[in-house]
Amino acid sequence: MDPRVEQFMARIKAKNPAEPEFHQAVMEVAESLIPFIEEHPKYKHAKILERLAEPERVIIFRVPWINDKGEIEINRGYRIEMNSAIGPFKGGLRFHPTVNLGILKFLAFEQVLKNSLTTLPMGGGKGGSDFDPKGKSDNEVMRFCQSFMTELSRHIGADTDVPAGDIGVGGREIGYLFGQYKRIRNEFTGVLTGKGIEYGGSLIRPEATGYGCVYFAEEMLNTREDSIKGKTVAISGSGNVAQYAVQKVMQLGGKVVTMSDSNGFIYDKNGIDEEKLAFIFDLKNIRRGRIRDYADKFGCEYYEGERPWKIKCDVALPDATQNEVDGKEAELLVKNGCLCVAEGANMPSTPDAIEVFLRSRILYGPGKAANAGGVAVSGLEMTQNSMRLPWSREEVDDRLHTIMKNIHQTCVKYGKEADGYTNYVNGANIGGFVKVADAMIAQGVV
Ligand code: NDP
User: Which residue among 145, 308, 318, 384 has the highest number of C-beta atoms inside a 10 angstrom radius?
Assistant: First the structure.
């Protein structure tokens, strides 16, 4: 490892102990940025990287609520306000039992660069709770959301910090959170994105991350005179991002053969079609069941406790969670002929896996570029809320498509190597960094 990166990381680890995901995210960025910063001393003198790795503010709070049995439950809530150099803090809320400070700091750190890549004026943040919505009734989820927002409402606002959804936070949760915010503050503002269409949401926001990820994969494939059409695609996850990634791959003529959840994955050789996807939407968003039910219903293979990366595919879209593709699985993907990986999830590939993808010279689009479509349309939702004027589906989708193309171009601009290979990791990290760094310098030591 570059000794400068090693030194920098030693300080980060000492200052942020027991936060391995945060260390991992910062290290990946430091490896791209430290050589770049050495060539641009103004960033070094202003200690931009050191400042980027320190949140502007971290809020941790108690979330007490009462379950259906009348018992008191206590969860922990968080909001990481990471960086507001180019706009209000912006980033999702995650409700999952694994949530802790380190995971949210990694997500907030990634979010700063991602939001910058979209070209929209959004700073970076992230939040959530160790609350598990799985197996809870709608009333329990509502009571939790109301308690969570009772504290969070003091810290957020349409021009201050604008949360959205993430794992475990979909339309239902955003609705309850928005309702409570409005009640406490007595104001109807665009304080959250991912809202229902009846109360200020944007068309295409539910689709945006999945669609955007596939648009990004298509752009990468185009650089090799190739496209999604006719490709076999392996997708992990079966939540918001995965569902709409499947839909867009289908629309572009590809065949999706896998989806998963935390229990296992299905392998459908014939490909997921409209009817089967409609079943998934109902299963996951309404009945809140397990992916195994898909195999029972359509008679395909199901692998309990496994991940889909052993299945032969041309394109892989990891759309579930962090560190879900390890080095061995990456080797297997490449050996089986996978030529493009685009990350719908945040940091789904381990450092070993990334090393394999880059060494093999396959097309590898890291999450902060490939999944930026979600926050981009959240930004467009904020714009529509400010104008108090909604855009049509086509208008939002066109803008999303253009943004994904621009992010791709930015990655090529900053990531193209001497032999013509585009290192999208460097491209995304440097491309996202420059705007934030210049804004921070302009605003002085704050
Ligand atoms: P959802 O909660 O809608 O879906 C998450 C999916 O991933 C589910 O299928 C879930 O399975 C699976 N999953 C979650 N945790 C694990 C785990 N530890 N091991 C295996 N599978 C797991 O979330 P999203 O689709 O919104 O988010 C998916 C990823 O995309 C996350 O990394 C998120 O940060 C990222 N992302 C999301 C954006 C958005 O707009 N929603 C924007 C940008 C990135 P199960 O139901 O069994 O838990």
Answer: 318
Q: Which of 113, 132, 262, 291 to mutate to test the pocket of ligand 1 (most atoms within 8 A of CB)?
A: 262
Q: Which residue has the tokens 């997708």?
A: 235
Q: What band does 1 get if pLDDT is binned at 50, 70 and 90?
A: confident
Q: What is the Å distance from ligand 1's center to 8 Cα?
A: 31
Q: Which CATH architecture has domain 57-187?
A: 3-Layer(aba) Sandwich (3.40)
Question: Is 99 near ligand 1, meaning CB less than 6 Å away?
Answer: no
- Residue positions annotated with a catalytic role: 126
Same fold for the pair 57-187 and 208-365:
yes
Counting from 1 in the atom list of ligand 1, the atom nearest the Cα of 94 is: 34
Report d(CA 412, CA 198) in Å as an integer: 39
Q: Where are the domains of the chain?
A: 3-51, 57-187, 208-365
Q: How far is the CA of 416 from the centre of ligand 1 (A)?
A: 30
For residues 378 and 371, the answer to whether their CB atoms sit within 8 Å is no
Ligand 1 proximity of 128 Cβ (cutoff 6 Å): no
Mean of pLDDT over the chain: 98
- d(C-alpha 343, C-alpha 423), whole Å: 14
The answer to whether the CB of 378 is under 6 A from ligand 1 is no
Centre of ligand 1 to C-alpha 182, Å, is: 27
Element (H, E) at 173: helix 171-185
Q: How far is CA 62 from CA 26, 76, 128, 179, 248, in A?
A: 28, 5, 12, 20, 40
Q: Quote the CA–CA distance of 140 and 295 in Å, as a whole number.
A: 30
* Class of domain 208-365 (CATH, top level): alpha beta
State the pairing for strand pair 363-365/340-342.
Answer: parallel
Tell me the per-residue pLDDT of 121-175, one tens digit each, with 9 for 90 and over: 999 999 999 999 999 999 999 999 999 999 999 999 999 999 999 999 999 999 9
28 lines ligand 1 (CB under 6 A): no
Token pair for 150: 């009772």
Instruction: Name the 3-class secondary structure at 64.
Output: strand
Ramachandran bin of 254, using left for φ above 0, alpha for ψ from -120 to 50, beta for the remaining angles: beta
Q: What is the pLDDT of residues 176-219, one digit of tens each?
A: 999 999 999 999 999 999 999 999 999 999 999 999 999 999 99
User: Which residues touch 363 (CB under 8 Å, ≥6 apart)?
Assistant: 217, 220, 221, 223, 224, 339, 340, 341, 342, 422, 424
Q: In ligand 1, which atom is closest to the CA atom of 322? A: 32
- Angle between helix axes 393-415 and 205-222 (nearest 10 degrees) is 40
